[in-house]
Specification:
With about 280 residues, the protein is α/β, with parallel strands linked by helices. The protein contains eleven helices and twelve strands. It has three domains: about 100 residues, Cobalt-precorrin-4 Transmethylase, domain 1 (3-Layer(aba) Sandwich); about 90 residues, Rossmann fold (3-Layer(aba) Sandwich); about 90 residues, 4-hydroxy-3-methylbut-2-enyl diphosphate reductase, catalytic domain (Cobalt-precorrin-4 Transmethylase, domain 1), CATH 3.40.1010.20. The structure holds FE3-S4 cluster.
Length: about 280
Amino acid sequence: MAEIRLAETAGFCFGVRRAVEKVYEEAGKAAGPVYTYGPVIHNEEVVRDLEKKGVRVLHSEEELKDLEEGTVIIRSHGVGKKIYDICAGKDKVRLVDATCPFVGKIHEIVRRESAEGRRILIIGDASHPEVQGIRGWSMDNTDIAASEEEIRGLGISPCNSLSVVAQTTYNSKKFIEVIDKLKNLVYDIRCFNTICNATQERQTEARNIASEADAVIVIGGKSSSNTRKLVEICREECDNVFFIQTAEDLKPLTLTSFDRIGITAGASTPQNIIEEVQNIVRSEF
Ligand code: F3S
């Protein structure tokens, strides 16, 4: 029988788990309709399951503006101040804030620094909802850049007073490099390393597990970029890496020849799928 090692960091991070639990909790107790502002996680099965429990997804600010009553849950990515203001203007709308506390901390930094009149630079992906939410806590003088090249295009001058934050999932090494360059350019700079290490820890553990395993199973959505990254890391360490979405995908696989099998999962893979996969692997291989 194979030795199975399941990554402790497989699946939801703290912030996502907390948000998903809040949505299930609200679905079970709220009297009126329950909405999430954007899908609570990028996992179709979870979103479908929540739909069955009556939870609907609001896709835009306009949909929120049209809403007359119900509970609106803010997901872990967080949102800009405007969304709180829209909800506050509606008597029959109750807001449940499941913003990850680490993201909430960035909102507070940006609000405070921006109120002091400082220019804000967010290092991250401008199209990501987390980054858009962060931007929504600053005054106008805010830039977003994902790379050194993009920063060069912003025209930041030595006399700017600049405060820099990062998207929580930004690469730590790249952030340090960018900050080093900026420190040479700007006299008055405040840097806040707001990167969350949940992603980093999941990747480091995946690498360790893969380096000691004969085969690794990575569970997650095909379109999930963080899961694909886990697959890539595991492939650097191990020749037999299987990328599956659900326990169903285990069927065609023959794992009997492996003595040590590692299992990990992307950030939006629910615990029940991880457990199901683990149980099948433990009982059949
Ligand atoms: Fe997750 Fe919150 Fe970090 S959502 S990745 S624990 S910032």
